[in-house]
Amino acid sequence: MKLMRLAALAAVLILSTSMVLAMGHGSYPDKPVNYIIPFGPGGESDITARHQQPFFKKMFNEDLVISYKPGGGGAVGWSQLNGMKGDGYTIMGINLPHIIVKPRQKDVGFATEDIAGVYMFHYTPDALVVTADSPFKTLQDVIDYAKENPGKLTLSGSGKGTANHLAQIRFDQMAGVKTTYVAFKGTGKAVTALLGSQVKAEWGYTSVGAKHEGKVRLLAVAMEKRHPKFPDVPTFKELGFDLVSGAYRGIAVPKSTPEPIRAKLSEQIAQINADPEFRRRMENDGMALLDVDYKDYKGFIDAQAKVYIEAATEAGVIR
Amino acid sequence: MPGIEYLLEALTLTNIMLALGGVIAGTIIGSLPGLTATMAVAVLVPITFSMPPASALILMGAIYTGAIYGGAYAAILLNTPGTPSAIATTFDGFPMAKRGDGDLAVTLACLASVTGGLVGAAFLLGLAPPLAEVALAFGPVEYFWLAIFGLTLISALSEGNLLKGLIGACFGLLLSSIGVAEISADVRFTFGSQVLLGGIETVSALIGLYCIPVLIDLVATPDRHLKVTHQPKGFRLLESLRISWKYKFNLIRSSVIGTLVGILPGAGGSIAGLVAYSEARRASKRTEHFGTGEPEGVQATESANNATVGGGFIPTLVLGIPGTPPDAVILGALLIQGVRTGPNLFTQEGSIVYTFIYGLFLATVLMLPTGLVIGRYAYKTIVTVPKAMLVPTVAFMTIIGTYSIRNSISDVIIMITLGVIGWVLNRMGYSPSPIVLGLILGRIAEQGFVQAWTIGAATEELFSMFFGRPISLAIIAFIGLSLFYPLIRARWIGRRRKVSAD
């Protein structure tokens, strides 16, 4: 009896393994792909994934099923990623600077190098935001105020050791000023604090300018070139500060995922990124598109890590 | 009435069907511990892509409002708040069910939820733009004091057993600091374990602390789960209507409290229910009956938590700031549809906003018949199912529900552990509510305090930051009242007795 059962089990195992192999990569995807967001629903990571969802379905004829695994600022999801099935049907969103800064703060169950990223598809550039009725009209106004009142300029932002926080640290260094960063739980609460005049300015994102059009003013954006939605807002670069940063988002797979599937997935995300309608929707929400594919992923992360680690060490976020 | 011309637009057959289906689905989802309104709405988002914005909003709003009401079933019949909003519903709902009035409690909850939902929607319809400013007036320091105010409610809830209440609250506060800190990103009290990294998730703690002890007791004692003293009497609707009419001021007051707390993005349904409960208790002539199965208690929390639905939509639609977690999901769905929220939404896109608000009214009204029927079915099931089936079914649901919140097996382990701790503590006379209050309010208090302190220290006005802002001072006054009310009351009664004795 026992033997029979064992034999049956073995047969099922062999059959399923060979089926997985046979399915191979020729027709990937041929069933719905599970897309895990390591944050709660409603945040920007969720929203960008939702933007990709209909295009994936249209282009590859399979559903992209979004689910959430929030906790520990993303760490809960990323620490479990490599334990998941690596067949290309489980993929997970990844965020910078999170996957660089977190593992260096404390043991969070994963290292930056453990994460098999296949594509970085966009970033939400950092931006210095004030309310529409703020006395600060230009970036220079902010710098002047901060110089006259060291430490008294309060800026809200989302979290500690995050894109906003590191931008604040780097900018303070570049401009030679001292400001006070007040961390809030998420961009929504940081904007609320700005709109309610609890703080004088916010280290936010370009998307804040899109979402709260008319109520806020962007003083500068941390991009190479001006954002198409905000042609009147200068970049930090134009004003003499070499600050190009933001919250970068990409997609990773479990480490056991075969190379051909990784390459194929990278191609597919690139294809979605190239769609004019997708670009229009993303840019209209204030985001900026980015194309770092599978072969460039490692170089990109290494370059970013250098900058982030320096800023985070400076801030005492990493010891 | 503003935007009355859109009433007809809301009443198309499609929208009525969406509202009806949404309310039914929401009620059922909300009644299962662990399946929250946020998840219910998130699952729906892809379906709404293909709908016009107003219909999508109506569907999501209906699911949301249904789920908040559905949370009352588990609270009343199983002593388990299905959502944090229903915590205070257990205080009197479960004792009512225990003594055989579960059907009455469910019907009362339905009437209260409909009332609360309508009041919240009315505020949303008439006063949304000015009221949205309330969300902005609340800064970090106000949230800090509000959380402290919430903690003082423990003194009222654990009268006669204050020490145990305080110990429970401290335990809860300690639990709230486990995991990656929301603001400072420090990793605390994880003892190197991955299980604790994500912190103690509120809903799984609720399930563990409230439901597991009930399950253990069910197995350990031969009694029936709920007492059945009478033959089924139908909905007991007339009786409920009479009680609701008698305590109409309680319903209105609680609904207004719910709406106002709902507007505050950092507060949420749990605080709304608790504040409404304690105010109802204070205002009632039957204060001493609260906690033993007083209908007023059920009415207060259930009307308040459904009023947060309308209240939460106010900052969501006017400011683009989600009032509650489900609102964040709804806001995201709207963004993808290309709808920009803001004050202009009300003036320029009236066909979306007002159609939706009337749709919300419609869904709330539809909750009356559907809620009564589903509630009666839930009650009958829980009462008639034999214990041998009830316990494994509920136990299974608690595990599935806990897992589904964050797709996390760690949460299941934490839930069961807390359940066992909760059972032991129950036996020693500690109730779960102070622990849960500490867990929820600890985070809000800590964040508010750290932020307020940072801003105050930077601008060198620390004292006026904490004690110089009008809203803060008002909340501090409430804290004083809440802390010393039992003393004041005792003295007042003592003096009156003296006078009458003279």
Number of discrete domains of chain B: 1
For CATH, the homologous superfamily of the largest domain in chain A is named as: Bordetella uptake gene, domain 1
CATH fold-level assignment of the largest domain in chain A: D-Maltodextrin-Binding Protein, domain 2
Q: What is the CA–CA distance across the termini of chain B? A: 57 Å
Task: State the distance separating the first and last CA atoms of chain A.
Answer: 60 Å
Put simply, the count of helices of chain B is: 20
> Structural class per helix/strand content of chain B?
mainly alpha
Adjacency order of strands in the biggest sheet of chain B: 1-2
Proportion of β residues of chain A?
15-25%
- Backbone structural class of chain A: alpha/beta
Please give the oligomerization state of what you see.
heterodimer
Shape of chain B: globular
Residue share in β-strands of chain B: under 5%
Helix content of chain A: 40-55%
- The proportion of residues forming helix of chain B, as a percent range, comes to over 70%
The coarse silhouette of chain A is globular
Describe the overall structure.
The complex is a heterodimer of chains A (319) and B (502). With 319 residues, chain A is α/β, with parallel strands linked by helices. Chain A folds into 2 domains: 28-123 and 247-314, Bordetella uptake gene, domain 1 (D-Maltodextrin-Binding Protein, domain 2, 3-Layer(aba) Sandwich), CATH 3.40.190; 125-221, 3-Layer(aba) Sandwich (D-Maltodextrin-Binding Protein, domain 2), CATH 3.40.190.10. In chain A, 42% of the residues lie in helices and 21% in strands. Chain A is built from 11 helices and 10 strands. Chain A has helices at 2-23, 44-60, 75-81, 98-105, 139-148, 163-175, 187-195, 206-211, 259-274, 276-284, 297-314, and strands at residues 33-37, 64-68, 90-96, 116-131, 154-158, 180-184, 201-205, 216-221, 246-253, 288-292. The N and C termini of chain A lie far apart (60 Å). The model of chain A is unreliable at 17-25 (pLDDT under 50). Chain B has one domain (4-496). Chain B is globular, with a radius of gyration of 22 Å. Chain B has 20 helices and 2 strands. At the A-B interface, helix 2, strand 2, helix 3, strand 6 and helix 7 of A face helix 3, helix 5, strand 1, helix 13 and helix 18 of B.
